[in-house]
């Protein structure tokens, strides 16, 4: 065992004491850290990595069976393995692969492997060096080249067919990535990124988008179209109404202790629709690539978000599995929106 002063964690690289050291024995964790020559890890980092292992059991299982993940053979991995590694089911993966018409196989990789590398990068947030080892590629530069190629191909062959302002519907806006979507969780457009400072809040961002007609959104909207927003957009309500839009926003207490029955009913009807935004924003954050963005990747962020949102649109599963039940619930809420509270009488 090296001297305590020379012990360094393979993950965070800090000097650690012998009593806090944990030896890396699992092959996946060694690859995840790109640390097969460094077998010591801090106890705090060890706990974090064990959680990663526990959350990726299918991934660990298939990696332990074969030295490398084999995607060229469609039968080598089952449906669950495809989902855990790429975020798509096997049939969804094959469907997406068929749409990549402008990419060809090369000596280094097939189109199928290239797509798997790209999706694994976004799904798991692994380093290029680890992906190179897992997919039996020459090195991290090869992985970087593959990711850049797939980004370009997806932006050309896939994204334009899955994101666009070509539907007439009730629009719901939220603040995570400013997606615009209807009640089947379809994302119409993505705006940004915007610098997170005191000058950029929900209201100022949407005012900027409307004023500059980004992506033709203001031209696409018509008079009396319904816009549903949360309290973060309150300062932009007047600006949107000046464009002829009908803006629905939850009520404010404004010093009162509670809402009237009508205000409470109306607010609940609005927030019921806003719920879908929270769900969709949560799904985009399931791609771990966005958890720790490198500065070198920031210039690709708009394209990367478009790709992830296009993947969501193409392969999403409706939150409400029974649309008929949703329609009946909406009818009941609208019928009772003006109903008085019997307990107040």
TrEMBL record:
Matching InterPro entries = HARBI1_dom
> Could you list the residue ranges that cross the membrane?
none
Q: Highest taxon of the source?
A: Eukaryota
Domain DDE Tnp4 residue range list: 201-313
Question: What name does UniProt use for this protein?
Answer: DDE Tnp4 domain-containing protein
A GO molecular function annotation here is: metal ion binding
User: Could you say which cofactors this protein requires?
Assistant: a divalent metal cation
Instruction: Give UniProt keywords alphabetically.
Output: Metal-binding
């Amino acid at each position: 065992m090296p001297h305590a002063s020379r012990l360094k964690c393979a993950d965070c690289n800090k000097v650690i004491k012998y009593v806090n050291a944990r030896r890396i024995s699992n092959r996946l964790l060694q690859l995840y850290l790109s640390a097969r020559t460094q077998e010591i890890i801090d106890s705090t980092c060890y706990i974090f990595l064990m959680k990663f292992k526990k959350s990726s059991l299918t991934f660990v299982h298939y990696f332990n069976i074969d030295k490398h993940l084999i995607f060229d053979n469609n039968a080598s991995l089952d449906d669950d393995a495809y989902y855990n590694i790429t975020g798509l089911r096997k049939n969804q993966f094959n469907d997406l692969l068929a749409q990549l018409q402008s990419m060809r196989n090369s000596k280094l990789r097939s189109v199928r492997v290239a797509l798997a590398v790209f999706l694994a990068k976004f799904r798991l947030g692994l380093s290029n060096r680890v992906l190179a080892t897992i997919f039996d590629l020459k090195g991290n530069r090869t992985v970087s080249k593959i990711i850049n190629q797939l980004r370009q191909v997806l932006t050309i062959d896939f994204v334009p067919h899955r994101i666009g302002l070509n539907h007439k519907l009730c629009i719901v806006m939220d603040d995570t990535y400013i997606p615009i979507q209807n009640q089947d969780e379809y994302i119409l457009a993505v705006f940004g990124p915007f610098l997170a400072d005191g000058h950029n809040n929900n209201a100022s961002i949407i005012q900027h988008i409307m004023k500059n007609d980004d992506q033709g959104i203001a031209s696409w909207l018509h008079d009396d179209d319904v816009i549903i927003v949360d309290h973060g957009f309150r300062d932009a309500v007047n600006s949107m109404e000046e464009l002829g839009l009908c803006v629905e926003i939850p009520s404010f207490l404004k010093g009162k202790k509670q809402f009237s029955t009508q205000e409470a009913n109306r607010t609940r009807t609005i927030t019921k629709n806003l719920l879908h935004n929270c769900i969709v924003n949560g799904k985009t954050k399931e791609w771990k690539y966005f958890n720790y963005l490198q500065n070198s990747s920031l210039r690709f962020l708009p394209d990367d978000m478009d790709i992830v949102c296009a993947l969501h649109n193409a392969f999403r599963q409706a939150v409400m599995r029974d649309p008929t039940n949703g329609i009946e619930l909406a009818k009941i809420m609208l019928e009772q929106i003006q109903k008085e509270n019997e307990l107040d009488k």
